[in-house]
Amino acid sequence: MNAILHAQQLTKHYPGSIALDNVDFTASAGQSIAIIGPSGSGKTTLLHCLAGILRPDAGAITLNTPSSPLRLDTLGDAALSRLRREEFGFVFQQGMLLPELTALENVALALMLNGTDRATSEARAAEWLAALGLAGMEQRRLGELSGGQVQRVAIARAQVTGARVVFADEPTGALDSATSKEVLDVLLHSVAANGRTLLVVTHDPNVAARCERVVELRDGRIVADSGTVPAPGPAAPAAQAVPNPPAAPSANFKGAFNV
Ligand SMILES: Nc1ncnc2c1ncn2[C@@H]1O[C@H](COP(=O)(O)OP(=O)(O)OP(=O)(O)O)[C@@H](O)[C@H]1O
């Protein structure tokens, strides 16, 4: 499998603690990877560094794009935020969606921020919501949806842009166990059907068990990895181009969820 995201010797300190201590990590394209470990072991810090949300103190992070490898740790703030919008999707427990917008507007906004016109953005957003079982709920605000439905909106928003890597932090953390299973099914199926890579931070053993690979952190270091991927070689030089990937859900995936 091809490496899509590669981190070398990542280190991140906070006053009084080392959140990441020389972490090497490579994700293969299309893999679903759970990041587990005790509270404070560095899971969220690793996810945020890989996603370009946090800057590591040291180390290299390379995203392999179809045009050229991109070194996240060398990009400026504007290039990094563009890369996050175009290449990455996020499913967090809270914070990525705007309560004052409807489900449709929340999903369409991700495309509009990338320059897609409103009509096209809303049409694609509607396709994604329907594919995730939310047809008929497009005009509801988040407060008019259940917790599981809100997470489906987040899953649609994370993927509508054609993001190649989806980052999830405790995506089912606030849900009961039956709803968690449903949301996890939707997340894993939609990501797999569209060939995306999924990195999910979780405390839930059921979530970890459903992922192809489990990486365990302790005290800022990887102490276990069920599927180490060979490193792709030295870190790539910095580059600027960010491609514009396709955006609609795959036909396969629509079929699987349009029931
Ligand atoms: N903004 C911050 N300021 C100071 N210390 C921080 C900050 N963020 C994280 N840390 C510290 O870094 C270490 C790793 O934190 P991180 O949130 O990555 O762990 P985690 O494994 O995700 O924890 P949890 O499972 O509780 O969410 C912890 O010791 C934490 O206290």
From TrEMBL:
CDD domains in the cross-refs: ABC_MJ0796_LolCDE_FtsE (cd03255)
GO MF term list: ATP binding; ATP hydrolysis activity; transmembrane transporter activity
Keywords: ATP-binding, Nucleotide-binding, Transport
UniProt signal peptide: none
ABC transporter domain sequence ranges: 5-251
Organism domain of life: Bacteria
PROSITE patterns documented for this protein: ABC_TRANSPORTER_2 (PS50893)
Record-linked Pfam families: ABC_tran
A GO CC term assigned to this protein in UniProt: plasma membrane
Entry annotated with the keyword Nucleotide-binding: yes
Keyword Transport found: yes
Protein name, per record: ABC transporter ATP-binding protein
Organism in which the protein naturally occurs: Paenarthrobacter aurescens (Arthrobacter aurescens)
